[in-house]
Every structure is written in structure tokens, then in C-alpha cells.
Amino acid sequence: MAENKVILELVSPERVLASEEVDMVTLPGAEGEFGVLPEHAPLVALLNPGIITTFEGTTPKKRIFVAGGFAEVNERGCIVLAEAAEPLEEIDRASAERALADARDDLADTKDAGETERQRLETAVKVAETRLEVLDNPSH
Amino acid sequence: MASLKDLRVRINSVKQTRKITSAMKLVAASKLKRAQEQAEAARPFAEKMTALLANVGGAMAGQPGLSPLLVGTGKDDVHLLVVATGDRGLCGAFNSSIIRGTRRRIAELRSQGKEVKLLTIGRKARDLLRRDYGDLMVEHVDGVVGKRRLEFADSKLIADKILDLFEQGAFDVATLVFNQFKSAVTQVLTFKALIPVELPVVEEQSEAAEPQAIYEFEPGEEAILNELLPRNIGVQIFRALLENAASEQGARMVAMDNATRNAGDMINSLSLRYNRQRQAQITKELIEIISGAEAV
């Protein structure tokens, strides 16, 4: 690792989304947002749907939406395994709204579905909601 | 002996076939390239997932009350085989090698007195296994492998189905059957354990080189493990489907290349026969005319 840099690797099942050196990165952890600076203690964390922000110096550089996943921090850097991820600029508002409406419909349609099925759909709604939320409130 | 006209018709039909097979070969070659790229793009995620799982699973090893996804149900009476093939034929031994391996595995498990259930992905798996093992099939997933581009969401749906079945206690052990892509001409039939999960053994030397860090877990180890395990199944399936897609195109390319060459050979030998026969006919007609003229 370069001096005082964090290597951020963001991978989704379909491709590698980012692999770069940054000064700091903040992640939407399941127990609250946390930042990773160089020489962070080794950590494995569950991520909520939310925003990953990379910093250059103290200024935010890139914002990427993730739909949940895992982060592993070790002496080599920070690895994020995301189910789905996209840079904030690439989210299309109309399609995000449609995805939310669809997810809500699906949830409403499946009253008699099994527990796991319902949980899955609830997660989908939450992901869609967050996706729209971060669009409205990018400083979040 | 075939008449001249018959030969002509046959030559034409073989030529048409050759056109089709050579076109299919070209299509398969370009699809192979895309499938290979996709499989390579997906590799880092699967590798990191496995590494993470090994880390967390290793930290938890030996503790009581672990998820049955990791340690199994304690029995292995009912086996679920998840068989993934392509939707289409004309790809050499690709589908049949998977089916043959599956049949062998079923016979093996049955001889040990185990119960077998099947979950099929891809039309060929269903069609070829239905006649003999129709009563073993619990699920079939269609319309996933035929797509231009495989999507992770589809694999997740399959994983959810498997997990549902597991929760209902429908089986104890799940194994995934697919062809691993080595090169366009070689595919390796692979059985991969899904449930309980196969943890990669951490190599001794890598441990010596860089001592394993003691991780903090947020929230707890168990919560993370419980999230990680079901997702891992989706990832494994996705990877298997990508390997399968690349294998299928590779096998088809090779099969169509052979078919094109065979058609060429056939056209040559048919043309030879056609020309000989045509010459014989001309000679015969000439003799008839000459001997007719001489008689006058």
C-alpha cells in the first residue's frame, strides 16, 4: 500500500467496479456509517443499502450507491463485496422511481408467500427506497 | 446407383448444411468470447467471497450452534443434485457429458441407499432426465441460461429456491453439477458441494508469509456468517452458470467446426462421383450416336 492511502476495491458479482487508492472511504455499515483511514484495524462488516464515499484529502471525490453487501478491511486495504452498485451520477431518477413502485407492488401482491420470500421482497423495497433517497439527498 | 439428378440434389443439400454449420461456428466463436469475458469479470467477486467465507468460517470453526448451511444437518440421507445445462443442442458432448455424470452419480447414491432429488437448470437437463428420473424432479428453472447475458439476479432466485427447499427439510446435501471451462476444446465435469459449504483450506505457506489478522466483526461473527452463507450459494451458482455458458459455446464451436469440415469432405467425394457419372453418360451417348451413324 502506498504511504497513507487506502486501497479500495469494490466488486460486484458481474464486474470490478473500482480499484483505486484513496485517502479515506466511508461505508454504510449495518451498525452505522463508518470511515476507513489508512492502517484501520482489521474488520469485517455487514453493509446496509447506502452510499460509499471516497475522499481525496478531505473533499469527497466519488459517491457510489450499494445495495448492501460486505466490507473487509485488512492491512492491504478495503474490499467491498456489493450485491449491486452504481455511481450516483448513473442512477436514473425515473427508473429508480419505477423500481421502487415495482418492488412495493410485488410486496403487496405476495401476502401468502413464505417467510423468506416476504423478507426478500421487503429488502428489495428498502433497497429501492434508499436508492431514491440518496438521489434526493446526495450529501447523505 | 444414384442418378445424376439425385447426386446434384444431395450435393446442394450438403452445401446448404455446410453454410449453416459454418455460420453457427462463427456465431459460437463470438459468443464464446463474450461468455469468457463475463466469466473472467465475475471471478474476483467469487474469489474474494470465498476468501472472506474462509476467514469468518475459520474463526467460527468448532463452535456449537453454527448454521446448518455450514456444518450440514447432521445427516446425509437425501441428496439434491442441481444440474445445470444449456437450453440448446448441437454443441457436441457438452450437455450429454453433464447428463451422463448425473446418471452415474444418481446410480451411485442410490446404491448407497440414499434418496436423490433433482433440480434442473436449462431445458436440456429437464428433457433428458425427465424420462428416467421424472419422479425425482422437484424444480425446474427455465429461461435463465438462454439469455444473451447472464444476470446475477437470476442466480439469486435459484439460490432462494434451493434455500427454501432446505428450510423445509427437503434435503440434507446439495451438489451442483456443471462443466468447468478450461479452454474451447476442454471442459471438465465438476461436482461442487453447495450445502454444506466447502470451505477452502487455508494454505500453510500463505499463513506463514502473512499472519492472519484478527478481525473485528460488526455486528457479530454469527450475524455476518448467516448473511454470507446464503449469498455464497447465489455466487457459486452464478459462477457455475458462467462457466457453463462459456463451455457450451466452446463445445458448439468445436462441434460446428468438425461438422463444417465433414461437410466439405462429403461435398468433394460426391462431386467426384457426380463428375465421373456425367462423363460416363457422355461417353455412352457418343458411342450410341457413332454406332447409329455407322449402321446407316
TrEMBL record, chain A:
Residue ranges of every copy of the ATP synthase F1 complex delta/epsilon subunit N-terminal domain listed in the record: 8-85
Protein family: Belongs to the ATPase epsilon chain family.
Complex and partners: F-type ATPases have 2 components, CF(1) - the catalytic core - and CF(0) - the membrane proton channel. CF(1) has five subunits: alpha(3), beta(3), gamma(1), delta(1), epsilon(1). CF(0) has three main subunits: a, b and c.
The protein's name: ATP synthase epsilon chain
Membrane topology: Peripheral membrane protein
Any single Pfam family the record assigns to this protein: ATP-synt_DE_N
Role according to the record: Produces ATP from ADP in the presence of a proton gradient across the membrane.
Lineage: superkingdom: Bacteria
Highest classification ranks of the organism: Bacteria, Pseudomonadati, Pseudomonadota, Alphaproteobacteria, Geminicoccales
Keyword field: ATP synthesis, Cell membrane, CF(1), Hydrogen ion transport, Ion transport, Membrane, Transport
Localization annotation: Cell membrane; Endomembrane system
Molecular-function GO terms, alphabetical: ATP binding; proton-transporting ATP synthase activity, rotational mechanism
Gene: atpC
Automatic annotation (TrEMBL), chain B:
UniProt xrefs under HAMAP family: ATP_synth_gamma_bact (MF_00815)
Coiled coil: none
The protein's name in its UniProt record: ATP synthase gamma chain
One Gene Ontology term of the molecular function aspect: ATP binding
GO cellular component: plasma membrane; proton-transporting ATP synthase complex; thylakoid
Protein encoded by which gene: atpG
InterPro entries on file: ATP_synth_F1_ATPase_gsu (IPR035968), ATP_synth_F1_gsu (IPR000131), ATP_synth_F1_gsu_CS (IPR023632)
Signal peptide residue numbers: none
Origin superkingdom: Bacteria
PANTHER family the UniProt entry points to: ATP SYNTHASE GAMMA CHAIN, ATP SYNTHASE SUBUNIT GAMMA, MITOCHONDRIAL
Subunit structure: F-type ATPases have 2 components, CF(1) - the catalytic core - and CF(0) - the membrane proton channel. CF(1) has five subunits: alpha(3), beta(3), gamma(1), delta(1), epsilon(1). CF(0) has three main subunits: a, b and c.
Similarity field: Belongs to the ATPase gamma chain family.
Lineage: Bacteria, Pseudomonadati, Pseudomonadota, Alphaproteobacteria, Geminicoccales
Subcellular location: Cell membrane; Membrane; Thylakoid
CDD domains found in the cross-reference section: F1-ATPase_gamma
GO annotation terms (biological process): proton motive force-driven plasma membrane ATP synthesis
Role description: Produces ATP from ADP in the presence of a proton gradient across the membrane. The gamma chain is believed to be important in regulating ATPase activity and the flow of protons through the CF(0) complex.
